[in-house]
Amino acid sequence: MQALRVIQKVSDDGYVHIKIPRDMGEQIELIILPLSSKENESMAYAQLQEKSGFVRETLGSESEDVWNDI
Fold first, then answer.
1. Which residues 6+ apart lie within 8 Å of 4 measured at CB?
2. What was the pLDDT predicted at 13?
3. Is residue 45 a contact partner of residue 54, using CB atoms and an 8 Å limit?
4. b/e code 24-57 from CB counts within 10 Å (16+ = b)
């Protein structure tokens, strides 16, 4: 998966203009987060990961429990 991180200032009328590289295809997923301080940035990424279901579905699966037996 490709990711494009762009930090831009929102105009007074609330618009942001982003040029998407052609190799990303015709459809994209856009997630908009407020720019946070470095202290809060790691917490924001953790919350985003939590919402993705990765922790619950992958790390919480029974097949991953074998690591507890080591």
1. 20, 21, 24
2. 96
3. no
4. eeeeeeeeeeeeeeeeeeeeeeeeeeeeeeeeee
Among 16, 18, 19, 21, smallest CA distance to 34 is for 16
pLDDT tens digits along 8-28: 889 999 999 999 888 888 999
Is the CB of residue 2 less than 8 Å from the CB of residue 24? yes
Among all chains, which residue has been given the structure tokens 């105009």? 11
Residue 11, phi-psi category: left (phi > 0), alpha (psi -120 to 50), beta (remainder): beta
Residue among 52, 19, 36 at smallest CA distance from 60? 52
Q: Which parts of the chain have pLDDT scores under 50?
A: none
